[in-house]
């Protein structure tokens, strides 16, 4: 028998062996009464996998099982160390996000819930395109805006307003600070410090995405209706099925979202794909196309895990004392700086 004939026989045998397995895997995905894949339920998108590939892994797209296990153990050990070490009091004016030795700021680590596992694919980054796992370069104009803002905010804490800011600017995390959007809800969705869940409600003609963070809801029509052209904080979404994948395309954003620290703008076109690949996994893929911010579009994916727990209340109130105190503190700091300057 020739090598070519042998290869053909082996290929046929492989197909015969794998076909039942593939069919079985597909049959495991539940479907709705109208035949579409059932993507309803609560889905958990926690992960310690970073958005971008670390520089020391520049040529490595995937971790080995041993490397992933070691990273997960280091995360568990770090959480245990933060939980059990002696109490440390914070001081007024310190950072809400960063404390001593890498610890959280005003929040005890107990309240954070970033997860302790890498994504199931063991990728070294959530980004899958570009292949180097890095966010593309910013446009010249966007880079200039970012540099100007960084200079303006030099020495200003993350959640503090830019000097003089109030209505248009409450800092780099202004939308979440004002309870307009949650920091992991975007859109698109990204793993964050806590409340990394989304509940999906599904009918034949629409899908609703309810994020646990701030309880943002996006209703996505599937019936092909026109967009009204009204700009919103979370844009205007329309969806359709591409085989067994739900594709959601969103445009008409009001301005930035909480994604990528507000770098996107009203020109963002967001394409999200939801594919239920097993009973317990919903693959979420997001493609970001904002030509005024990045030189090319880019894509990341998260294998979301089914969560048998309900969503829990996330209470965020723009009118609480936190907002008043943040603004009062900012004005006091500005007055003190002005007085110091005048005394020179």
Describe this structure in words.
By secondary structure, this protein is an alpha+beta fold. It has a domain at 135-319. 25% of the residues lie in helices and 19% in strands. It contains five helices and ten strands. The protein has helices spanning 3-28, 65-84, 140-152, 174-177, 321-342; strands spanning 41-44, 127-129, 197-202, 206-211, 217-221, 236-242, 245-251, 269-276, 281-289, 298-307. Strands 1, 2, 3, 4, 5, 6, 7, 8, 9 and 10 form a ten-stranded antiparallel beta sheet that branches. Strand 3 (197-202) and strand 4 (206-211) form a beta hairpin. The longest helix has 26 residues, at 3-28. The radius of gyration is 23 Å and the shape is globular. 24% of the residues are buried.
- Put simply, the count of helices is 5
Helix content: 10-25%
First-residue to last-residue Cα separation: 94 Å
Averaged pLDDT: 86
Radius of gyration: 23 Å
Principal-axis shape equals globular
Strand content: 15-25%
Order of helices and strands: HEHEHHEEEEEEEEH
The largest sheet is: 10 strands, antiparallel
- Please provide the count of β strands: 10
Pairing-aware structural class of the strands and helices? alpha+beta
Low-confidence segments: 1-26
């Amino acid at each position: 028998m020739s090598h070519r004939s042998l290869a053909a026989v082996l290929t046929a045998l492989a197909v015969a062996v794998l076909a039942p397995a593939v069919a079985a895997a597909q049959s495991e995905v539940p479907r709705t009464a109208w035949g579409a894949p059932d993507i309803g339920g609560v889905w958990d998108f926690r992960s310690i996998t970073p958005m971008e590939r670390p520089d020391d892994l520049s040529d490595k797209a995937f971790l080995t099982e041993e490397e992933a296990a070691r990273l997960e153990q280091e995360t568990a050990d770090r959480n245990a160390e933060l939980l059990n070490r002696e109490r440390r009091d914070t001081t007024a004016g310190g950072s809400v996000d960063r404390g001593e030795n890498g610890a959280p700021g005003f929040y005890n680590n107990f309240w954070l819930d970033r997860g302790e596992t890498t994504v199931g694919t063991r990728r070294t980054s959530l980004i899958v395109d570009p292949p180097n796992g890095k966010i593309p370069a910013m446009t010249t104009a966007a880079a200039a805006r970012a540099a100007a803002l960084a200079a303006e905010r030099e020495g200003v804490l993350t959640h503090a307003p830019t000097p003089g800011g109030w209505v248009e600017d409450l800092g780099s995390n202004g939308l979440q600070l004002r309870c307009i959007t949650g920091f992991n809800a975007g859109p698109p969705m990204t793993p964050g410090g806590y409340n990394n869940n989304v509940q999906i409600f599904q009918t034949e003609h629409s899908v609703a995405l309810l994020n646990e963070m701030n309880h943002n809801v996006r209703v996505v029509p599937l019936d092909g209706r026109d967009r009204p052209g009204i700009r919103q904080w979370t844009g205007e979404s329309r969806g359709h099925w591409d085989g067994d994948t739900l594709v959601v395309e969103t445009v008409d954003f009001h301005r930035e979202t909480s994604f990528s620290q507000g770098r996107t703008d009203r020109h963002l076109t967001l394409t999200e794909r939801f594919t239920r690949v097993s009973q317990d996994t919903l693959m979420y893929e997001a493609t970001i196309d904002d030509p005024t911010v990045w030189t090319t579009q880019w894509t990341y994916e998260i294998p979301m895990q089914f969560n048998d727990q309900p969503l829990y209340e996330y209470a965020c109130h723009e009118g609480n004392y936190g907002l008043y105190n943040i603004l009062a503190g900012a004005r006091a700091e500005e007055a003190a700086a002005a007085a110091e300057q005048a005394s020179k």
